[in-house]
Amino acid sequence: MNPVWKRSWPIYLMIFPGLLFFIVFRYIPMGGLVLAFKDYDPFSGFSGSPWVGFDHFHRLFTQQDFWIILRNTFVLSGINLFFFFPIPIAMAILLNEVKLPWVRKLVQTTIYIPHFVSWVVVAGITVVLFATQDGGINKLLAEHGRQRMELLTDPSYFQALFLTQNIWKEMGWGTIIFLASLASVDPGLYEAAYVDGAGRWRQLWHITLPSLRTIVVIMFILRLGQIMDVGFEQIFLLQNSLNLSVSDVFDTYVYRNGVQHGEFGFTTAMGLFKSVVGLVLLLTFNRLAKKFGEEGVY
Amino acid sequence: MGKKFNLVADGILYLILLLIVLFIALPFSYILFSSFSTNAEYYSRGFYILPHKWTINAYGYLAMNENFMQAYRNTFVLTACGTAISLGFTLFMAYGLSKRWLRGRRLLNMLVLFTMIFHGGMIPTYLLVSELHLLNSYWSIYLTGAIFPFLLIIMRSFFASFPPELEEAARMDGCGELQLLLRIVLPLSIPSVVTIALMYGVAHWNSYFQAILYLNDSAKWPIQSFLRQFLLDSDTGMLRSVGSYEYGPPVKMAAVIVTALPLLLCYPFLQKYFNKGMLVGSIKG
Amino acid sequence: MRKWTVLALSSLLAAGAAGCGNSTNEAQSESAPASGSAAASVAASSPEATVDTSKKLTITLLAPSYAGGGWQGDNAVVQKLNEKLNINLQIQWVPIANLAEKETAMAASNSFPDAYFVLQNEFTKWRDKGVFLDVKPYLEQFPNFTKYLSEESLQIENPADHYYGFPYYIQDTRDSLAVRKDWLDKLGLQAPTTIEEFGQVATAFATQDPDGNGKQDTSGFSFGMTNGSFSGLSPILAAFGLGNEWIQSGDELVNYKTQTEQLKPFVSFLRELYASGGLDKDFVTNKNNDHKSKFVASTVGIAEYVPGELFTTSLPNLQQTHPEARIAQVIPPVGPDGKQGTSTLPMTSKIVINNSIDKEKQQRIIQLLDYMLSDEGYDLIKNGVENVHWKSENGTFVKLDAYDVDRPQLLSTWFFRRADPLIQMHKWEDQALLDQLQQWNDNNAKYAWPNPAAEVVSEVQSKLAPNLNEKWMAAVTKIIVGQAPVDDVDQAASDWLKDGGDKITQDINEQYKKLHQ
Known about the structure:
Chain A has helices spanning about 5-25, 45-50, 55-60, 65-85, 85-95, 100-110, 120-130, 135-145, 155-185, 185-195, 200-225, 230-240, 245, 250-255, 265-290. Chain A is mainly alpha-helical. Chain A has a domain at about 55-120 and about 170-290: MetI-like (MetI-like fold), CATH 1.10.3720.10. Chain A starts with a helix and ends in a 7-residue tail after the last helix. Chain C is of the alpha/beta class. Chain C has 20 helices and 17 strands. In chain C, helix 12 (about 290-295) crosses helix 13 (about 305-320) and helix 14 packs across helix 15 (about 375-385). In chain C, about 45% of the residues are buried. Chain B: It comes from Cohnella fermenti.
């Protein structure tokens, strides 16, 4: 037997079930993407529904608020990428520095909890805390003779509120993957550095941070692929008539205009548009990452 | 590791952590403690931490609710089986794809990555599930969500960070690939395997839409399908006080707590795997 | 240690593969031997409908579900229906939020159940695709449909000579404004009858401490906003002469968003109330039912309610913290031009029968639905089973605990029912309560304020309206909270028209004329 093949076949065998999954459950349904160019009628099926060419896309691009929606989406996505994304990394590093095991466990468990609270409930607490009249914070302000703040309706607070909710709910959850990475760092490296007289900062700089680099780059690139997804439920629940100018994003737009009326052709087209944008960004940054000697995602 | 306790540095560190814990815990305590409140207090008090009057009414109500309890049991089955199946598919495939020398590796990686970005959508997937006669069976849920490309890629990169010498050494000893994976690589990857298992577990635990779509019998649905409806859909007055248990918003909060509880309880047990760094190191050294 | 972990892991995998598929026992016997007595009793109780029930049939039925979900397994009501009609009824409950998606998927795979509930959008889209059975030919043989549902309601959304489904009854003038009577009494006020008085009462509730706790922590009234339209505000809109979405003006239908003459006093009214505190400062963030929770929390004194819900759920909750709380109805207040009205809800959802199943089964389903409207059947789906969910004692009816646990009324509240305004009220309910509800209903019924275009489904509208409405609402909200001048109403209206509202208006008018030729 060919030696390369001899070495490879067990590996191909291991890959096979997964590959089958991707082909059957991911690639076969992708045929449905033709709906993006059709006026879908469930009774005529995928092939029977009439072609409409680029009508759905035309409807999106000629939408007068298209640029506002796109801008809002990118702004919120940018906030997630540049302000939220580093937080779990920082948190993992902080926790890595904690030497008392019980403190570490306690903090870790506490920050992990909110991941299991659904957005509806988060939105509920947000109102209970931030409402202008009955909100806890404003009641406190009023009692001390301060001006009430329109935290939920003033568009200038929206992005901060969005970020705060995200940090509260997902910081701890996001930390896990980085903690797992740190857990596989050889403790011998730290010992050696300590013996060499490296202080805490130098250990952090020369051991901890480099060991996170690969995973951070991968996570960042994968996130870029999802740049158009900014958390539909969260935003939908936080949206109101007064903050619409900054809170209307791609997903809420598609929800209003397609999903609610069962227009599957239109929603498929919108999904396709999102995917293409994500793909372009992902490929660009993956190439960039490889230039800097990183492994990248493929 | 440097064991010296630095008063200033550690002081600041612990202060920051304390603030973070408060930031997380205060809003959460509202959910937790309002589930132990009476309806009256919930409605009249706005934001509060400790109730004046404690009651386990809400939990009693849930225990009496057959739909809730049934859905809760279903979730345990779905999560255990779903996670096991997902892990099986993912670990083998990720291990295979972590081999840098493998021919076609780049193509396969691209195939996987592509599905992270492009999705066929709900209706074609439903048609497929229907064609495969998987409707009404839990297999529809296990199989349609068997691999999350994101987790596959993460796992692959964990495996890829293994030193190639390890593989060579094992091969010298006459180890086959399967043995290498099961006997050496997996045991050394416990932190990452546990992480991935946790991620799958939580994803399966939180899934609701597939069940609603693929299973016609609502008695088979998981807890999240119930919880979503409980929290989101309008209350049409069909839920009333049962016996001495009164229905109201605290019951919803209690449902949130009970739903999250098993995952909260298992976390501390999994934590030790994240904190252990010696496994890989002991081999390398 | 390592070995054990591996062992555990692999056994977990094995267990997963072995024990994970044990949930496919869908096989149901299609024709069990019929119990002769059941068949006979059907024939006896409804002599008009002579349907051969000797064969036991499995009937699948899809119904929407809301908070709490549907029945699991065999509810006593299902058993009774099964026995009575010699069927094997299998109900698929689908959360209302996912109903349209699930039915579209079913449409795509041609796997509709035998009978199902559809919303307006799907009904009108699919009506002419031949998937729904025309039930009109059966109405003579099964008289309960015309007896307990009006002929007009059967005609809704249907062409003249075909009825492609039965209507899901909704009481048109269901919702009513409620006010805190004890607050009125405390401040020496009367329930408002005009818009002016309404404003005065609301402001007084905000400024004169009606709950006597020494704090300014109450407001007059509140309402919500969903999908770019007001909810819980209809009597105020009507009082100013605004349309219930559409209004007849000369020969044409006009959208209320463009009635600038009427909008200006309306918006000014709300703007003043907002400034005085009479309107809840947080109304902008209210979702569907938040104004009701605020009423229960005793922070708001006036809110629009479904009266049945108010008396059975909200008032008892309110009285737990405020035992002195009393409620009075606010008759739709009279506006500056003498107009008054209350939200009139359209009856747009349908119960349809699968057109592709065999004739015999279709007939049995019609028999089932007909039975659900009959005296005996309606009693069953509304009140439950005797001696299980209720019992009679010395001529009065008493509810049993199983009623609250089993919720035997689900089919009647979520799926199909008579034109019965007191649908949520049961035979054991206190007569005084029933009288009071009847009174509220009668008071309200005089002020119907219908949407003339409720039946019209316009594709132009569903494509353009969602965005336009959101934008219009954003502009108007800004005016109400004082961030923009009242005259901006003109701008909001003309933007709405310019950006597509004129096309919507044109299409709605065309469709409307086609429908009413």
